[in-house]
Amino acid sequence: MNYISIISEYCKNKRCIVKINESLKEYTAFKIGGTAEAVVLPEDKETLIGLFKIIKEHKIKYILLGNASNVLISENHFDGVFIMTSQMNNITVGRGVPDAPPSIHADCGAPLNKLAGTAKEHSLSGLEFAYGIPGSLGGAVYMNAGAYGGQMSDIVYSGEYLDTDTLEVVTINAQAHKFAYRKSVFAENSNYIILSSVLKLKHGDKSDIDALMTKNMSARKEKQPLEYPSAGSVFKRGEGYFTAKLIEDCGLKGCQIGGAQVSEKHAGFIINKGGAKFPDVVNLIEHIKAVVFNKTGITIEREVKIIDF
């Protein structure tokens, strides 16, 4: 029995979806990607842990993603398993913070928009900044996502992760996350898989929370090219400068390679204008870095994760 059959058999009696020889394109925000031997979508942490027991026992190659909103995926065939945590999206209000009812406990695959909306419905403030970020909780914690004056490190109270080396489930406090700008302890340890987080929020006025969320979303629509597939900001913010402005000042707005273009609306975004290929985006990223360095002497750092296989 090959490993695909083993995984398929395992998932038959679990809350788990398996898709064989699946295209990855529709799973990614860029709408770019090849195929995988299997795409597996577990719906709870117990199923995910069981999957990793199989993966470890049979030495199966795997790639794990959440909402695939901040990645660029190769168009080759991956002879392994893509695990997507988007179906692990339970959200519970008021659990996890002792003597502090305003909190949310959520699975790693919970969309940030759903989290922000849930917080608003319960008059809880602190997640307004995340409204409109097209990612999942796990991805946001992994990279300490932030916008409009807020970031995940402001609200994470504790977390739970699977150590794939030992198959142990570990609970950590906020300090142990080692948050920094666009990074966390998970970015440094590939064997740590985020399972869930507890977010510590504050009581607020529902109408005020709604107004701030609406304001943030309006700003996104006005400034960002949301009408095109993209992976958000391609480069990290620099110290003492805004990278998007640096790219714009170098005359790169509208620069295009194949179907990939530096957005004319926001120079920090590379968009799929239609039919963009993996090499188009990679080559455009490298071109941007080279031009900016040649004109300013500044080396800008990529934020989007490239998965090549």
The number of helical elements comes to: 8
Broad CATH class of the largest domain: Alpha Beta
The whole-number mean of residue pLDDT values reads 94
Strand order of the largest sheet: 6-7-13-11-12
Main sheet summary: 5 strands, antiparallel
Span between termini: 25 Å
String of helices and strands: HEEHEEEEEHEHEEEEHEEHEHEEEHE
Structural class: alpha+beta
Helicity range of the residues?
25-40%
Determine Rg (CA atoms, Å). 20 Å
Q: What share of the residues does DSSP label as strand, in percent?
A: 25-35%
- The total of beta strands comes to 19
As residue ranges, the low-confidence spans are none
Our count of domains comes out at 3
Provide keyphrases for this structure.
309 residues, alpha+beta, Uridine Diphospho-n-acetylenolpyruvylglucosamine Reductase, domain 2, Uridine Diphospho-n-acetylenolpyruvylglucosamine Reductase, domain 3, Uridine Diphospho-n-acetylenolpyruvylglucosamine Reductase, domain 1, five-stranded antiparallel beta sheet, four-stranded mixed beta sheet, 8 helices, 28% strand, globular
